[in-house]
Specification:
This is Reverse transcriptase zinc-binding domain-containing protein. This protein has one domain. The protein has helices at residues 3-13, 20-25, 44-50, 55-61, 75-85, 88-100. Helix 1 (3-13) packs across helix 6 (88-100). The radius of gyration is 13 Å and the shape is globular. The protein is mostly helical and 101 residues long. It contains six helices and no strands. The structure holds zinc ion (ZN). The site of zinc ion has 6 residues, from loops.
């Protein structure tokens, strides 16, 4: 796996991705709504996986990974769940998809 993808996953696990929720948490004055769908908070997990604009891409990958509804699931918990359920090749593909999203 490319180093830039590993670094992205590591940064996402620590919420160091500049999503609106993360920027507001660091003091910026802005809305936390997702600018792509305007239907949810732009958390790290929402920005790279859960936003409805990615649903077709994510569904076509057919990883069979599901997460709880709502804005409470953290990216770290999601990727931990993926590490437990996916084989190495699927996990690597998932990481590339998350990075591309
Ligand atoms: Zn969205």
């Amino acid at each position: 796996m490319a180093l830039k993808i590993k670094m992205f996953i590591w940064r996402a696990c620590y919420d160091w991705v500049p999503t609106r929720c993360n920027l507001v948490a660091r003091g910026m004055k802005m809305t936390t709504d997702c600018p792509m769908c305007n239907q949810s908070l732009e958390t790290t997990l929402h920005a790279v996986w859960d936003c409805r604009i990615f649903k077709d891409v994510n569904k076509s990958c057919n990883f069979g990974v599901h997460m709880g509804k709502g804005n409470n699931t953290k990216f770290f918990d999601f990727i931990l769940n993926c590490f437990e359920k996916l084989n190495g090749a699927d996990l690597e593909l998932l990481c590339v998809v998350l990075w591309r999203n």
